[in-house]
Design a protein that fits this description.
two-stranded antiparallel ribbon, four-stranded mixed beta sheet, alpha/beta
Length: 345
């Protein structure tokens, strides 16, 4: 046991002297410093919402017209058909979409609504519930007037009026009712028109994915050092399980410094609970150790491994989420990505 511990500390010092490992450690630390030093910038959200209105009711027409002219974080705009809406959603031109079927307004008076507005969103759609609120607040702004007029027109006082004066009288009553403070009181808590939403954003650096790539790379480098030492007959006296333990020591000695540095770096850049990040890094490190150990068992020659290593690293870079969004890959590429530990980090 003492022999293995001594060998572990020797390999640990050796891994820290390797240029590749040192470069990866320095890159992570520099990225953490950059992330902390660069101030967050405020970014205003601009969320286009496509509307396909098939309802010809005057109330709905007034509603969508007011939406097109509104000053809001949502930019409501018309589309000709569903195909155009699908294209805008798939390309990211629109944040979400609303399809208003024919007869919706008329059916809205019924207690058993059978015609519903269709809401289309994607995984990247932001605040879809808020744009629905925006739509319905404007719809009922027009609809409420019709409801009030209908109820008032049924009142005996309205029926007693001269027919030529009814509309004028009803308009005055409704305006007084709507603008009076006895029934409704509107309080503005925002200090102005709600026309934008801002959020603080840091520099977009895929630090976590990069750390995951570096941890995996360190484990793969550990295999290379073990194969090289084995071919130099350093472990000639080791037998059976002892050789597997030495493989493991090589991998862990290379991967451990990278994992220890990755934890505070991810904590700084991601925020949240430090213990939670520590657990994620520890679990991912274990997966990378087992992944590397698997390759060290099936590949016994350093010359063969030197040919396989660039392929493994290239796949990890492409399918690890550092350069590309893995969720946007099609099914076949996503299956390849799922075979790599970086997909799950």
């Amino acid at each position: 046991m003492r022999l293995f511990l001594n060998r572990f500390f020797i390999l640990l010092k050796r891994s820290l002297r390797q240029p590749v490992n040192m470069a990866m450690l320095v890159v992570l630390l520099v990225l953490a410093v950059i992330y902390r030093q660069v101030p967050a910038s405020e970014k205003s959200l601009y969320l286009p919402v496509a509307i396909l209105c098939e309802d010809t009711d005057p109330i709905m027409q007034e509603t969508v017209k007011s939406l097109y002219e509104s000053n809001s974080i949502f930019h409501f705009h018309p589309v000709a058909d569903k195909e155009e809406m699908y294209q805008e959603l798939s390309s990211g031109t629109s944040n979400s979409g609303l399809v208003i079927p024919a007869g919706f307004t008329e059916n809205a008076w019924s207690s058993a609504t059978e015609i519903r507005i269709q809401v289309y969103t994607t995984r990247s759609s932001a605040l879809p519930s808020l744009n629905r609120d925006e739509f319905f607040s404007r719809f009922y702004r027009w609809e409420a007037a019709e409801i009030v007029k209908k109820k008032m027109s049924e009142a005996p006082a309205y029926q007693a009026l001269d027919p030529t004066l009814r509309d004028t009288a009803l308009t005055k009553i409704y305006e007084a009712f709507k603008n009076g403070g006895d029934v409704f009181r509107v309080e503005d808590s925002s200090g102005g028109v709600y026309n934008e939403l801002t959020r603080e954003e840091k520099v977009e650096i895929p630090v976590k994915k990069l750390a995951g790539l570096f941890i995996l790379t360190a484990g793969l480098i550990g295999i290379a050092t073990f194969l090289k030492d084995s071919e130099e007959r350093l472990y000639l006296r080791l037998r059976g399980s002892e050789r597997y333990v030495m493989r493991l020591i090589h991998i862990v000695s290379c991967i451990l410094p990278m994992s220890l540095i990755s934890w505070p770096v991810i904590w700084i850049t991601e925020g949240g609970s430090g213990l939670e990040h520590l657990g994620h890094v520890a679990l991912y490190t274990l997966v990378c150790v087992l992944y590397s150990l698997f390759f060290s068992v099936i590949i016994r020659s350093s010359s063969v491994y030197q040919k396989v290593l660039p392929i493994l690293l290239t796949m990890a870079i492409i399918f690890g989420g550092v350069l590309f969004d893995v969720t946007s890959f099609d099914r076949s590429f996503k299956v390849i990505a799922m075979c790599l530990p970086t997909y799950y980090f």
